[in-house]
Design a protein that fits this description.
The termini are far apart. The protein is elongated and about 55 Å long. Strand 3 and strand 4 form a beta hairpin. It contains twelve helices and four strands, in the order E-H-E-H-H-H-H-H-H-H-H-E-E-H-H-H. Helix 5 packs antiparallel against helix 8, helix 8 crosses helix 10 and helix 8 crosses helix 12. It is mostly helical. The strands form two sheets. It has a two-stranded antiparallel sheet with strand order 1-2. 56% of the residues lie in helices and 3% in strands. The longest helix has 29 residues. The structure holds a DNA duplex.
Length: 306
DNA sequence: AAGAAAGTCAACCGCCCACGT
DNA sequence: AACGTGGGCGGTTGACTTTCT
């Protein structure tokens, strides 16, 4: 299909005739179009997208211009991989609001709803699929809440601890100022400090210090220790709550389950650590058969209890 | 090395709502 | 109240890239 020039029938047939008949461009934006759009907005501001598109001489729909601006050209758009803190926030907020991407995006400065949506669909849903459960199922939500999120908190704390020792300023401090100063610094052959999984090359993200770290699922096995976690997790959780101005997950329920999950997970983890560390093959697709079995058991038993 | 499969993400679609006339 | 229009939103698509076999 020719993406470059297509007669675009605007939705519901309510667009004016001239626009409907106009030869509108579709597909990827060119540098020239980007420049034109940015230049126009710099002089006239954003909004009134249909007329903006016309006046700027862009053969694009107003919607297309708006999308391009909001998702890509806007100066405060934050590019790069989703940080651990952002992952945690996304999980947290999604558990509250579901697929309200724009609402979630409002709490992640510089991130667009599209980006968050893509992250969710490509990363999170993938793991639901691997666990053979629906991403909206209670089982999967519990796995996120009681397993992944506590692990993420641990990793954030560990990373912050590492940065403290090196004197690096951390976004964790900005976002989670209540994190305990004596953060857990776990040495699993440096895995906790965000050492990249060199041979996967995929799904790696950066933490707040620009150090590459792996995807959220790493946190399932990276840090079996749970010492100090109950306190620390609650504090991070509280911090997010204060950002939102409302209460989040009950700390009691959260951490009770979290500890149960992780206590068992840590035993399983011991067997996997060597592989993880040696091969680095454990970054994103870290669900081997035993892991899958284990998680299924956890999910089932958890489901029975509830 | 090459083709297949999987992952990523920019862009589009269609629905909906708010607002003005 | 009905209609037109602009714009926001979530879902989906498909081109491109990366990884696997």
């Amino acid at each position: 299909m020719d993406h470059q020039h297509v007669k675009v029938g605007l939705s519901r047939g309510v667009a004016n005739k001239n626009e409907e008949d106009m030869d509108l461009r579709r597909g990827p934006w060119t540098d020239e179009e980007d420049f034109t759009l940015m230049n126009y907005i710099a002089h006239h501001g954003e909004g009134r997208w249909n007329s903006l598109a016309r006046c700027a001489g862009l053969k694009r729909t107003g919607k297309s211009c708006r999308l391009r601006w909001l998702n890509y050209l806007r100066p405060d758009v934050r590019r790069g991989n989703i940080t651990l803190e952002e992952q945690l926030l996304i999980l947290e907020l999604h558990s509250r609001w579901g697929n309200r991407w724009s609402k979630i995006a409002q709490h992640l400065p510089g991130r667009t709803d599209n980006e968050i949506k893509n992250y969710w669909r490509t990363r999170v849903q993938k793991h639901a699929k691997q666990l053979k459960c629906d991403v909206n199922s209670k089982q999967f939500k519990d796995t996120m809440r009681y397993l992944w999120m506590p692990r993420l908190v641990e990793r954030i704390q560990a990373a912050a601890g590492a940065s403290t020792s090196t004197g690096t300023t951390s976004e964790v401090v900005h976002h989670h100022q209540t994190i305990h100063p004596n953060m857990v610094q776990i040495d699993h052959n440096n895995k906790n400090t965000g050492v990249t999984n060199s041979n996967t090359g995929t799904a790696s993200s950066e933490n707040s210090f620009g150090t590459p770290v792996s995807d959220l699922t790493d946190c399932c096995y990276n840090y079996p220790q749970v010492r100090n976690q109950q306190q620390d997790c609650f504090q991070v959780n509280q911090s997010i709550s204060s950002q939102l101005g409302e209460s989040l997950i009950s700390p009691t329920g959260y951490f009770h389950h979290a500890l149960e999950f992780q206590g068992a997970a840590s035993m399983d983890h011991q067997q996997n650590t060597t592989q993880w560390v040696d091969g680095g093959s454990f970054s994103d697709n870290l669900w081997n058969i035993e892991d899958m079995w284990f998680l299924q058991q956890q999910l089932n038993s958890n489901n029975n209890v509830v």
